[in-house]
Amino acid sequence: MRAQPLPSDPPRPPASGPVSSWHECHGCGAFQLVPPLGAGMTARCWRCDRVLRRGHRDPLGHGAALAAAALVLLGVVATMTMMTVSTVGISHQADLLGGPMELWRRGMWELALVVGFTTLVAPFALLAGLLTVLLLLRRQRPPRQLRLLFRAVLWLTPWSMIEVFLLGAFVAYTKLQDLVQIGIGPALFALGVLTFVMTWLDSELSPPAIWEEMQRRGVADPPLPAPGARPALPADPVSCHVCGHVQPAPQEHGHATCRRCDAALHRRKPNGIARAWALCLAALICYVPANYYPVLTVMQLGAGAPSTILGGVVELVAARMWPLAALVFAASIAVPVLKLTALMFMLACTQLGAARWLVERTRLYGIVLGIGRWSMVDIYMESLLGALVQFGRVVTIEPGVGAVAFCAVVILTMLAAESFDPRLMWDAAAAADRRGRAAEPLPP
Questions:
Q1: What number of other Cβ atoms are within 10 A of residue 415's Cβ?
Q2: Which of 7, 29, 95, 258 could be bridged to 423 by S-S, CB 3.0 to 4.6 A?
């Protein structure tokens, strides 16, 4: 369904159920009233078709159960063996921390920190924080610090990359089959189940419902409107970019905070265009050494050669591993290039005040925001290969310096996408239209 004004006599939901609320579309900036949604219903923006909110049957209860299950599975993944490889009577095994520890031992502490954070620290902190929030919200008087904890959970969400790590493990397993004998440990099966549970959790979780429950419990201000009421849109509305609460714009100049989550309040992301340009240019610079220097070196019986990203794809094609070659090419070459091209295109259109393809550009931004993390597949694959294949002169795999530059490209493009505000595209087009109308000659 699309968001629209409520009828004059809307049905009254139960006192503890969802309420009508104003939302600003963070894709185009249109304010619209979203009525209470039943399970399975979706409210979309009338202007750009972006999803504003989804209805769930029991987002708090289901979320707590799934978060608890995911925490248990993450413990299994972190403590048990993921893969075992052997050759010439020697065997090695690796767990979730094996890759970061091997990278740290080889002096690649930057990669070790990124891999360890995105595969263990961020998922654990996200799940533990979310479970704490959902359980404490069941108390009669939850602590007000839950607002800060849930803000941290939302910030960690894009940096938890368990599902990307699973794909990297699959690529590593496929590449190892021709080099050594390989066995799958219980942690890899648990990783597959964990990916499924976290995907289910993401589909069931409703951040707006959690913020509303905080208001209902007195954790966050202001109190919820009465069930069935038709809230009025403030005269000069502004929405929080963290929790989405629509509120009157502060009258005084200076630092203002959201009434509900206490985050810094801005009409648009501060310096969004300048920051996005700077991060895009930095990523573009890092992309040159990422493709020039080797990302992986395979030494077999004392002989071998370094391999770049493109060289790895060529090797997979030569081995007739067509699906895997396509996967690595898409994640490691096509996605970074398309992300940088799309971001710079949107930035240029915004600065030029272009009015064409606004809806399409907004959808493009959503795609760019979602696909960037999948380029980490190559980094995870290299960390696992480096941890598993260490058999002296028989066969050894070492990550190369190009992997550090490529990891920087992925992080910088993700930060650039997060920094850009797509509402600026609509603002710029509207401002250009007003200037054009003002420049038109008056009728005689």
A1: 18
A2: 29
